[in-house]
Amino acid sequence: MRFYLISDNIDTQVGMRLAGIDGVVVHKPDEVQKALSEAMNDRENAVILITEKLVKLCSETVYDYKLNRKQPLIVEIPDRHTTSNITETISKYIESAIGLKL
To answer: Which pTM was predicted?
Structure first.
């Protein structure tokens, strides 16, 4: 079982590679969806790390996977360009999962 990264910038990918985590760099919504689909269907992947910017590009697809698939686990990570609030991200996930707005 391994970690896999889907990133929007090379700096994040290089940092993760130094930690032994493979991944891809993508920028367009169709590239994100393809990379995520391939990563989700690879049985070796236990955790998929995806940058916040890419989650925003394809939020419906990402949250659909999170809600309907048990494995692998998708973890949204900040990168050096991110300024979002983690509380907001968690609240949005809860709202889409159970329909409760916090």
So the answer is: 0.79
